[in-house]
Amino acid sequence: PNTTVCKGKRFAPLRPLTPYNFFFRDERDRILAASRNERLPELSQDERRYKLLWDHWSRDRNKKRAHRKSHGQIGFQELSKLISTRWKALSRPEQDYFREVAAIDL
Predict the structure, then answer these.
(1) What is d(CA 80, CA 76) in angstroms, rounded to the nearest whole number?
(2) Please, how many CA atoms are within 13 Å of residue 80, restricted to the half-sphere of its CB?
(3) Which residues contact 95 (CB under 8 A, 6 or more apart)?
C-alpha cells in the first residue's frame, strides 16, 4: 500500500528492514543484557521471529520518539563495531534466518 492509516492519520508505510538491521536489534539486546549480568529468556526461532517483527511493526508513529538517556554501558560506535564483527562471523544458516525475517517484513 502507498499509505498506512492509523488512528485516522495517514502515514507513509514503514520501510522494510534489512537482515542486518534485524540482527543488529537482536544482538544489541543480547549485549546489553550480558553487560547488566541479565539472562534473556530462551526463545524458539518462531518466537524470536515474532518478537523481531512485532517490535518493528508496532512502532507508534503518531508522535516523535522522546529522547532516551543512553544506557551508559557501551558507546554506539563500539557497539556497532562489535555487532558488525559478529555479523561477518555469522554462519550461513544463521544469516539465512535473518534473511527470512527480512523477507517477511517486505
Answers:
(1) 6
(2) 4
(3) 19, 23, 87
pTM for this predicted structure:
0.70
Q: How far apart are CA 48 and CA 26, in angstroms?
A: 9
Residues in the chain: 106
* Each residue's pLDDT tens digit, 1-21: 455 555 566 666 677 889 999
Q: What are the phi and psi torsion angles at 84 (to 5°)? A: -65, -35
- Grid look-up 492519520 returns 9
